[in-house]
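$ run holo --ligand "glutamic acid" --emit tokens
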Amino acid sequence: MFHISKRMSVIEESPTLATAAKVKEMKEKGKDIISLTVGEPDLNPPQEVKDAAIAAILDNRANHYTPTAGILPLRQAIVDYHHRYDGLDYQASQVIVTEGAKNALYTLFQVILDEGDEVLIPSPYWVSYTEQVKLAEGVPIIVTAKADNGFKVSVQELEEKRSARTKAIILNSPNNPTGTVYSKEELKELGNWAVKHDMIIVADEIYYRLCYNGNEAVSIASLSDEIKKQTFLINGVSKSYAMTGWRIGYTIGDQAIINKMVELSSHSTSNPAGPSQYGALAAISSSQDFVEEMRTIFEGRLNYVYPLIEKLPGFKVTKPQGAFYVFADCSEAAKMTGYQSVSDFALGLIEEAGVAVVAGEGFGAPNFIRISYTLEESVLLEAVNRMKQFIEMKKNN
Ligand code: PMP
Ligand code: GLU
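-- output --
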């Protein structure tokens, strides 16, 4: 049959999206499944966001191509926002708006990497980093962050994996899937180390407004001018404003690289969807009350569900500080229920317990499962009860 490019043979489909799609299909067929899979808020964006997008369509501002980098008012609003929240100074020309943060990362790797360039990726990592690096002919170099160290990597651990080909490091704080948030001091140490070795810092800060129980995330670029120069800041509206379907993310950083990202996007996507850009503009320029309301809701859910998950037989967890996931070591649970691997255990949960989670394999942590807790507490309770019954039933068989 048809030839498939070599490029496509080095990557796998996103396991988060694939599991979520599988569950959706099973649900549509009438199967009773609680989905704790995909990482997205269950809330909806504020009314003013929806109104702004609709108004832009109705008065014909949003129906045509926009500049590839995004409409200027949105780029300016992004710059103003990061000035307000992080004390950062950028020019609007240093921003490219893209179809979600996913495409911001994809385009950045295409621009900065040559064949064989190495990218340090602390694991557990978000599933798309390794695949996007490979698609740019780069080499992902995994640096394992241990659960006992709160899933944080140290400069020493990174140094062991550094080579003459190391081009960049990806720092994702708060982290998907662990919810780990690096402190200001830790980030500064990592940042200074990257600067010393002339490494690009890819700072994926998409969850940085979602921290709980007194934890706070800082933007690494705000820690010194030297670090800022090396940093490409990745963010977007998907998580903070419950706008995953709108597909708006962005990169801010060095002008020459941003210009090349714009050139590439001019051939790949032309521009992010017009109505979405107007919605994102309203979200970013809004009072931000919505973000705080959502953060408070998620904090409540975390504090509710975490102790329940912690008590599940064979589950070992570390309390997350941000994002909206609990990452649980289930190697014991898999063993006691007779499964060969945690991936099989996760499959058993879907098929027999009616609870869908994402297996840790795609995050570089095969002994773990990721539980997304963006659901109402009553549903979370039901999900945990189902998991508990499933483990107890299997254990006794
Ligand atoms: N980075 C991380 C760490 C994520 O979890 C996600 C999840 N979607 C993204 C980037 C991509 O976000 P977006 O939906 O804006 O593409
Ligand atoms: N980032 C989310 C997740 O990890 C959305 C799915 C995806 O883009 O991978 O579930």
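-- notes --
The pocket of 4'-deoxy-4'-aminopyridoxal-5'-phosphate (ligand 1) is lined by residues 39, 100-102, 126, 172, 176, 204, 206, 236, 238, 244, 249 (CB under 6 Å).
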